[in-house]
Amino acid sequence: LFPFSSKGAMMDNRFATALVIACVLSLISTIYMAASIGTDFWYEYHTLSPVENITEAGRSVWEEFVSEEADEKTYTDALFRCNGTVGLWRRCITVPKNSHWYSPPGIWKTDMTTNCISFSLSDQFMEKYIEPGNHNSGTDLNRTYLWRLQFLLPFVSLGLMCFGALIGLCACACRSLYPAIATGVLHFLAGLCTLGLVGCYVAGIELLHKKLPLPDDVRGEFGWSFCLACVSAPLQFMAAALFIWAARTNRKEFTLLKAYRVA
Question: Transmembrane stretches, by residue range (predicted)?
Answer without folding.
Answer: 15-35, 151-173, 185-204, 224-247
